[in-house]
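Example S7 (structure tokens).
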């Protein structure tokens, strides 16, 4: 049975929010989850608000990521029409009956922004202030690919703000392990999103927009390989600062081996999307390492 015009438009609003593509949500949420468990390990708080922190982080990741997608698509409509990967996005549709309206897009942005800020408000004053700052940065991201040679670096900063927001909610401030983890994830985002952007290199050249792939040039894979080396080096330092034991480092080594193997495979087969998705597995492995540390610490105690 054919869908009604109203239902098709509703589905396109959901597509505009990228609800049908959960991988980026996990790439935003899992680092936050890792820092929640790490903060618990460091602080060893008896009455730790697990449910509140994890539920707000998960819902916040969905809404914040959706907000970024809607704002990005609104400003990038002309570019998306000329890019093979994005030419069928909701705001590029020619059929006005099922295309999201401008008023509808603005209303959706207001809803997503309000919910995101309310969730941050539930965490406290500093998380709320940091969320306001993050929201402003989200608005500026579409501009970066037009004026900044490394828009993925700016994206990494904005995309991982949840780490410092949740860390400030737990400890009332931001400790050095959390700052280091934040920096590490900025670089990690640069790495996996550069690979993702490689799909659009020809269209980016044609549309005269910047990306780290273009900036790094023909040897971009060598640069990304070195960035991953730095990321896992920082991950080890993060583990030392958090005073982790063996399980964390074992998981870090397993993660490094997998990502290196998949990276070399990507360079040969040019399966950029597949490699992008593999980063979720690495985050899960690191999360297992942190949880294992907590279990081991409780067993020893």
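Recovered sequence:
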């Amino acid at each position: 049975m054919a869908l009604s015009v109203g239902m098709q438009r509703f589905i396109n609003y959901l597509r505009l929010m990228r609800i049908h593509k959960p991988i980026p949500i996990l790439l935003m949420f899992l680092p936050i989850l890792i820092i929640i468990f790490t903060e618990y390990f460091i602080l060893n708080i008896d009455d730790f608000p697990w449910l509140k922190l994890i539920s707000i982080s998960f819902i916040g990741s969905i809404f914040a990521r959706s907000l970024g997608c809607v704002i990005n698509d609104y400003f990038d409509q002309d570019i998306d029409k000329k890019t093979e990967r994005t030419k069928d996005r909701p705001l590029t549709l020619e059929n006005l009956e099922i295309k999201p309206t401008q008023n509808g897009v603005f209303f959706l942005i207001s809803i997503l922004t309000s919910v995101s800020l309310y969730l941050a408000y539930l965490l406290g004053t500093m998380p709320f202030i940091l969320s306001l700052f993050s929201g402003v940065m989200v608005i500026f991201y579409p501009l970066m690919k037009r004026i900044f040679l490394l828009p993925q670096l700016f994206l990494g900063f904005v995309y991982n703000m949840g780490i410092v927001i949740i860390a400030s909610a737990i400890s009332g401030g931001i400790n050095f392990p959390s700052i280091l983890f934040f920096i590490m994830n900025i670089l990690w985002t640069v790495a996996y999103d550069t690979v993702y952007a490689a799909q659009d290199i020809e269209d980016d050249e044609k549309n005269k927009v910047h990306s780290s792939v273009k900036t790094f040039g023909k040897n971009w894979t060598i640069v990304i390989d070195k960035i991953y080396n730095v990321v896992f080096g920082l991950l080890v330092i993060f583990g030392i600062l958090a005073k982790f034991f063996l399980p964390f480092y074992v998981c870090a080594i397993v993660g490094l081996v997998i990502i290196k193997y998949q990276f070399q495979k990507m360079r040969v087969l040019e399966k950029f999307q597949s490699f992008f998705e593999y980063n979720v597995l690495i985050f899960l492995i690191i999360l297992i390492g942190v949880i294992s540390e907590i279990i081991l610490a409780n067993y020893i105690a």
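Notes on this example. The chain is about 80% helix and 0% strand.
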